[in-house]
Design goal:
The protein has 105 residues and is an alpha+beta fold. The protein is 16% helix and 20% strand.
């Protein structure tokens, strides 16, 4: 199974396994990762699964669609590498992806 590395705003790292085809958000919820609230359950209807994707992984992700881009307007401290973790689908190509949770969610 591919792995996701979550880093919180204080630098604590947590590595978890994610089923292929699941999302980074689902892996976070299943492993009780702090900082990922996932209020909408992955419907891309909120921004409570906002993460910063490590720059080394940005080129491997699908582009943001209009809905995700719109939802990021509700997130705090949005950066160029901001994504909604419910929109990042896990695959072998993303094994080891590193994301950081924002200080405020």
């Amino acid at each position: 199974m591919p792995k996701v590395i979550f880093v919180d705003h204080e630098g604590t790292r947590r590595e978890v396994e994610a089923k292929k085809g699941s999302t980074v958000m689902e892996a976070a919820v299943q492993n009780m990762i702090p900082g990922i609230d996932a209020d909408c359950g992955g419907a891309c209807a909120c921004a409570t699964c906002h993460v910063y994707v490590d720059e080394a992984w940005m080129g491997k992700l699908k582009d943001k669609d209009d809905m995700e881009d719109s939802m990021l307007d509700f997130a705090e401290d949005v950066q160029d590498n901001s994504r909604l973790s419910c929109q990042i689908q896990m695959s072998d190509d993303l094994d080891g992806i590193t994301v950081t949770t924002p200080e405020a969610q």
